[in-house]
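Hi R.,

Quick one: here's the Nif3-like dinuclear metal center hexameric protein sequence you asked about.
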Amino acid sequence: MERSEFVDRLDSRLRIADYADLDASANGLQIGSRHGEIDHVAFAVDGVQQTFELAIDAGADALVVHHGISWGGFDRVTGRTYDRIAPLVENDLALYVAHLPLDGHQELGNAAGVADVLGLEDRTPFGELGPEYVGQRGTARETYTPAELRERLEAELDGNRDVQFLEFGPDEIEEVAILTGSGTDYLDEAVAAGADALITGEGKQKVYHEAREAGIHVALAGHYATETFGVRALQELAAEWGLETTYLDVPTGL
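And here's the predicted structure, written out as tokens:
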């Protein structure tokens, strides 16, 4: 497949342009040329030296990640920034990034993937950001107890970590709001939406008291662990397009 076609397909499917003014990340093709062929694509959560090297070793022509290396641009391409970019340029490895567009996608996104493993129904967008959304909410087919929800998350999410559970909500959990990564700033929106629990990756100190006062559960399931779903979904999509794919699992434990 032509690189330009691969990039254009992802840009369109993920509605990259709609997030241009909302996201600090430079989404889309971040490093590399649109010219040339792509036969093999690697996928990872983080665009860092380790995943670049693994993608090169795997023989990939492109690497698709959730977290890229440009957050508002570069002042200088030196030091660690140069060390990250150099392997991409030297090995003609294109870097494609989908940050908030992949968080908010209602079918392929990270929150949608968490909702899938929890068996949520009647899903609607959650986590308003301007005219877009960066999460999802839904209703459990059968209610969870706090212990059951925690166990389900620990069993289904990548990353090999315990889920920290702030148990301040009802005994039965039916309505669940999900905003992966760092989403505790959306606690009030979850409460307003009638959620019994908010699932996110990592928390801030203040969320403990906010959740306790609001009477809502908060599951802190890991930033990495909650954000593997989107790139895995894109891997499946690329395979459907006839491309060879490789998933690079580099958990941080955070």
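The longest strand covers residues 132-144.

Cheers,
M.
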